[in-house]
Design goal:
Number of domains: 1
Distance between the termini: 39 Å
Order of helices and strands: HHHHHHHHHHH
Number of helices: 11
Strand content: under 5%
CATH architecture: Orthogonal Bundle
Radius of gyration: 16 Å
Number of strands: 0
């Protein structure tokens, strides 16, 4: 079993298992946010990015069976020959809160992944409402305003985003700013 995964290996696995376009976009958005946060915080950018890329790898495989979410991703990665506990633990713990899922977040990395994947939903929902449907020019204050409106993008966990900012030791507006900038860096790829 391999205890290290390269980006090219992760991308190959990602392309093999995840086919639904919006899920692929979400995973790429999470990847670039995780990379940006790793750079900002002085962590391993590739590892954080790979974790973001692969965190929802199983969603095409499991369908509506959300109790398998995370566990199926770990199974797929093990089937591909990998045994990377830190990666597996982050993927498993990002699903905390889904009914019937026993995993809990414990490390800063795990909390940051959960927040990074949630902030993509808030930013994407805001961009969709803009007349030009483009991320270019999106302001932190605009996202902060939507953040405070629980009815807007109601499925996005504000709690997970706040916990991520806290575990990253940054203000919420800084976390949002880094996230917007990261997503804007792949705007053409994700249709924003």
């Amino acid at each position: 079993m391999k205890t290290i995964i390269t980006y090219s290996e992760a991308k190959e696995i990602f392309d093999k298992y995840l086919k639904t376009e919006y899920l692929r976009f979400h995973c790429r958005e999470t990847e670039v946010i995780m990379r940006a946060l790793a750079r900002h915080l002085g962590h391993d950018e590739d590892f954080w990015g790979i974790t973001g890329l692969l965190h929802d790898l199983d969603l095409d495989e499991i369908g509506e069976n959300m109790q398998m979410h995370g566990r199926k991703t770990v199974e797929l990665l093990k089937d591909e020959g990998y045994d990377i506990p830190e990666l597996f633990d982050a993927i498993l713990s990002h699903v905390e809160g889904i009914k019937g899922v026993p995993y809990k977040r414990e490390t800063d990395f795990q909390f940051i992944l959960a927040g990074a994947e949630n902030i993509t939903g808030l930013i994407s929902a805001y961009v969709i409402l803009r007349p030009d449907k483009k991320i270019e020019g999106v302001k932190v204050k605009s996202i902060m305003k939507k953040f405070k409106s629980p009815a807007f993008a109601a499925k996005v966990s504000r709690e997970f985003i706040l916990e991520a900012a806290e575990h990253a030791k940054m203000e919420l507006n800084e976390f949002i700013g880094i996230s917007i900038e990261a997503m804007a860096s792949i705007a053409d790829e994700i249709g924003m």
